[in-house]
Fold this protein.
Amino acid sequence: MKKGYFAIAIAVLPWGFSFLNTKIAIQALGAMTLCFSRFLIALVIISIVAFITKKDLKIKNEDIKYFLLAGGVGITVYFYFENNGVKYIDPSAASLLLASMPIATIFSEALFDGRKLDKKMIIGGLISLIGVGIIMGGDINLNSLFVGDALKGYLMMFGAILSWVVYSLSTKVLFKKYSQFTIVFYQFLFGVVLAFPFIFIEKNSFELVNNVVVFNVLMLGVFSSAIGFFAFNYSMKALGVSKASLFINFIPLVTIIASYFYYGTFIGLNQVIGGIFIIGSVLINREDKEVEYINTHRNVSD
């Protein structure tokens, strides 16, 4: 049991720090270049693990399109939006907004699949929406709605949430047929391949790359993407799926605390109140099987 809690800490800590790592690295690297770099590192690591443990990575030809979609939407598109979003807004705000992904996914699924929502889920959705509004209200007002970078950053984060919803709804078939390891391997593989061409298109400031930038890219690739994945999967086995997925909701807390030590800035009152609303909306629905499912599969891209 203790090993399970240690494992979940190893997963949640780098995921919380990842928003700050991105904030630093994105100053020198474009969104897609950063995406390519971190997942190339992660792909090398899990490939070595697959070789040593002799993992069966065979997939059926008819499922290649789903794996391509997983890498294209779950990695390339998602991180285009998230990396750019973190560039323009505070990492804490970005982390708190992404905490609403389980609720957003469930509502979208209900819209497309006709799933009936109970009162608790509806209330949770409204609470989450209020929380998002409160967080944004701290940075955006009517006078500055179309001026500055805050609106651009929030729109990027909404793009990340939307791309995650599309990814979740379109790749569920994979989780019923393949192991998490196999899915993550091909998601990383296709994500790296699809992100590569953008390196030559987007603007990069390679002259700004230094030891600090390299360190943060390594943190993202080694700890957030690779080690975080293995640690979280171990914690699910040791603690159970429900308890392990519950810890996902502590990622924003890690980001907030880390932001203080990184930048010496205190979290704003709007973020505190909005964060409580968003995390609370997920916690009150933590026993919902769909919330549990989405939380346990968030580790493929955090």
Notes: The chain has a mean pLDDT of 80. The radius of gyration is 18 Å. The chain has one domain: 2-300. Residues 2-300 form one domain.
